[in-house]
């Protein structure tokens, strides 16, 4: 089933190749959307079949006949939700750019379907080298999408910042992987996590991996690429960047640093806490000063990811589960923010400067209502999954280091400041003298944002739906959990326990 | 889409455009003046350094789980008082 998730988008992108752009744009869009929807349905079936009590990777498929690599794929509770997020967001990305790509629609859609395959591959491979390959390979289509279909002349600089920053950081990850392979002889997740590395070795490897993941997260001072990339990217690419690219780092922290290098993770916890708190406060203060609403939402993403990192490195089940929940919540709400400001407003008025907008509630009341709910969820009000994730992440880090927890909790106030500023500034007051009369949000845009809000609301009310699947996997991260005996075969179990 | 599917240009204000361009490209004119240097040292070294010292000093220092009255919150110290006699 996992291989179907990887192949369906590729088949869809191949189906687009023979269609000509002059006559078949509508058919191309329908094929791409249908492909991504089918992939989403397959992932829902996968979710239904998932056994939340299993200790092992599930749906494992091994491709040992490949001569050039050892391809194993499988999922556990952690990767399940990132896969679901990927398949959920991709149709929304395609829908978001339904009308506003004026040229090269075929290649635009092919790029997104390709990115869907590569992103799912990152979350399902069980090998470090393949993780690295797919982790880096998503940059190439995104570099092309931002550079070709971006918003203004500065899109070239933004695409190069995105590509070179993350690539340069990831070279250190490659070095660490090569050292692991040289010393252990394998890059398989299970083999590496069971190997006994000395603390000194773990420290060096940890720094190599951390530098790459810190650029991807991003953390101050490696965050420069994100606001530019988000602001200049077309809407679908902004959604994909916010929803999934940042979660690659979250997944890397969980799979590599916490699982494989636990002693070094504990050793470097103060460093991570420092960088996360600095990132959170500095990015939140920078958010307040933004004049471009897409850059404002991008900076707010940096602050939210800092809270995720605080939760991940809290060394508590509460903190890690909260961080994963916040990652999922941010993965739906931040795209909703981009869809509203970068999609609805920018498509009509073609300017991102906040100064031009005021009083949108006069002519766009439905838009303002949706914007209010999205803003409220973005600042983590209760009933949203953002609140659940943020509260649990801060609870986790509070257990580990109360003072860092208090500093991290300043995000609650700061996120409210910039969220309410943006909402108030755009929505209320007299209608802007710079804008002409416009109609409200369209049905397509409404249906684009509504699923994202519903996901955040439903899982915010019932977060146990997510946590039930996460418990076993997260517990395994922190505690070595091994089955004592196979209880499906009683005689063998009795023998295994010494015949007593 | 909103706007009836038509792009409705905003009435550009040259002053706002100049201001917006200035804010977006301020990094091109950045130089390390005395004030900028002081700010960079304070926000780039002193504040993160202070937070790092706090993080290192108080990491896993406190254990709040299951504490009773009189017990110390500091990890490794019990400090429980004997029960009061009636």
Automatic annotation (TrEMBL), chain A:
Reactions catalysed according to its record: a ubiquinone + NADH + 5 H(+)(in) = a ubiquinol + NAD(+) + 4 H(+)(out)
Known EC number(s)? 7.1.1.2
- What UniProt keywords are attached to this protein's entry? Electron transport, Membrane, Mitochondrion, NAD, Respiratory chain, Signal, Transmembrane, Transmembrane helix, Transport, Ubiquinone
Q: Where is the NADH:quinone oxidoreductase/Mrp antiporter transmembrane domain?
A: 127-410
Gene Ontology terms, MF aspect? NADH dehydrogenase (ubiquinone) activity; NADH dehydrogenase activity; ubiquinone binding
Query: Among its keywords, does the record have Electron transport?
Result: yes
Per the entry, what this protein does is: Core subunit of the mitochondrial membrane respiratory chain NADH dehydrogenase (Complex I) which catalyzes electron transfer from NADH through the respiratory chain, using ubiquinone as an electron acceptor. Essential for the catalytic activity and assembly of complex I. Core subunit of the mitochondrial membrane respiratory chain NADH dehydrogenase (Complex I) that is believed to belong to the minimal assembly required for catalysis. Complex I functions in the transfer of electrons from NADH to the respiratory chain. The immediate electron acceptor for the enzyme is believed to be ubiquinone.
Could you tell me what this protein is called? NADH-ubiquinone oxidoreductase chain 4
Source organism (scientific name): Dioszegia hungarica
From TrEMBL, chain B:
Q: Does the keyword Membrane apply?
A: yes
Give the CC-aspect GO terms.
Answer: mitochondrial inner membrane
- InterPro entries named among the record's database cross-references: NADH_UbQ_OxRdtase_NDUFB4_su
Q: What topology in the membrane does the UniProt record assign?
A: Single-pass membrane protein
Its keywords, alphabetically, are: Electron transport, Membrane, Mitochondrion, Mitochondrion inner membrane, Respiratory chain, Transmembrane, Transmembrane helix, Transport
Query: Is Transmembrane helix one of the keywords UniProt gives this record?
Result: yes
Give me the segments passing through the membrane: 40-58
From the Swiss-Prot or TrEMBL record, state where the protein is found: Mitochondrion inner membrane
Per the record, a Pfam family? NDUF_B4
Q: Which family does the record claim for this protein?
A: Belongs to the complex I NDUFB4 subunit family.
Q: Which PANTHER family match?
A: NADH DEHYDROGENASE [UBIQUINONE] 1 BETA SUBCOMPLEX SUBUNIT 4, NADH:UBIQUINONE OXIDOREDUCTASE 6.6KD SUBUNIT
Kindly provide the name given to this protein in its UniProt entry.
NADH dehydrogenase [ubiquinone] 1 beta subcomplex subunit 4
């Amino acid at each position: 089933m996992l291989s179907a998730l990887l192949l369906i988008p590729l088949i869809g992108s191949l189906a687009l190749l023979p269609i000509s752009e002059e006559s078949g744009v509508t058919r191309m869009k329908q094929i791409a959307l249908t492909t991504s929807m089918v992939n989403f349905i397959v992932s829902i079936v996968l979710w239904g079949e998932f056994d939340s009590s299993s200790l092992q990777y599930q749906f494992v498929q091994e491709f040992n006949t490949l001569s050039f690599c050892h391809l194993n794929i499988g999922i556990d509770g952690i990767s399940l939700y990132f896969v679901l997020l990927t398949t959920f967001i991709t149709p929304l990305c395609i829908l978001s750019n339904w009308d506003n790509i004026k040229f090269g629609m075929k290649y635009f859609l092919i790029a997104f379907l390709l990115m869907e395959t590569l992103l799912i591959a990152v979350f399902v491979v069980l090998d470090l080298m393949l993780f690295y390959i797919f982790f880096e390979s998503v940059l190439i289509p995104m570099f092309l999408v931002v550079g070709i279909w971006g918003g203004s002349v500065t899109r070239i600089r933004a695409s190069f910042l995105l590509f070179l920053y993350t690539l340069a950081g990831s070279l250190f990850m490659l070095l660490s992987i090569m050292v692991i392979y040289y010393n252990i002889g394998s890059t398989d997740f299970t083999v590496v996590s069971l190997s006994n590395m000395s603390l000194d070795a773990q420290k060096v490897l940890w720094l190599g991996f951390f530098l790459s993941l810190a650029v991807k997260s991003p953390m101050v001072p490696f965050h420069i690429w994100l606001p530019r990339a988000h602001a200049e990217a077309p809407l679908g690419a902004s959604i994909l960047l916010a929803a999934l690219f940042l979660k690659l780092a979250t997944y890397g922290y969980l799979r590599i640093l916490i699982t494989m290098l636990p002693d070094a993770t504990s050793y470097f916890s103060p460093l991570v806490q420092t960088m996360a708190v600095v990132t959170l406060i500095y990015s939140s203060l920078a958010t307040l000063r933004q004049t471009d609403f897409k850059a404002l939402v991008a900076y707010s993403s940096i602050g939210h990811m800092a809270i995720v990192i605080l939760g991940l490195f809290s060394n508590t089940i509460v903190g890690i589960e909260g961080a994963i929940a916040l990652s999922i919540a941010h993965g739906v709400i931040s795209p909703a923010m981009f869809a509203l400001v970068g999609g609805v407003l920018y498509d009509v008025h073609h300017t991102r400067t906040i100064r031009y907008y005021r009083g949108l509630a006069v002519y766009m009341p439905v838009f303002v209502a949706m914007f209010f709910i999205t803003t409220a969820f973005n600042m983590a009000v209760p009933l949203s999954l953002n609140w659940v994730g943020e509260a649990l992440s801060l609870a986790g880090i509070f257990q580990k280091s109360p003072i860092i927890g208090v500093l991290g909790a300043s995000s609650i106030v700061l996120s409210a400041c910039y969220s309410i500023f943006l909402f108030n500034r755009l929505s209320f007051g007299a209608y802007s003298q710079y804008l002409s009369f416009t109609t409200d949000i369209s049905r397509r845009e409404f249906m684009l944002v509504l699923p994202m809000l519903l996901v955040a609301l439903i899982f915010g009310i019932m977060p146990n739906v997510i946590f039930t699947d996460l418990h076993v996997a997260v517990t395994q991260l922190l505690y070595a959990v091994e089955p004592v005996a196979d209880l499906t075969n009683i005689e063998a179990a009795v023998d295994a326990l010494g015949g007593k | 889409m909103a706007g009836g599917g038509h792009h409705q240009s905003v009435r550009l204000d040259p002053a706002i455009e100049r201001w917006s361009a200035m804010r977006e490209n301020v990094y091109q004119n950045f130089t390390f003046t005395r004030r900028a240097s002081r700010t960079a040292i304070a926000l780039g070294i002193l504040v993160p350094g202070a937070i790092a010292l706090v993080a290192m000093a108080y990491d896993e220092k406190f254990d709040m789980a299951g504490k009773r009255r009189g017990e110390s919150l500091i990890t490794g110290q019990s400090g429980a008082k004997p029960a009061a006699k009636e």
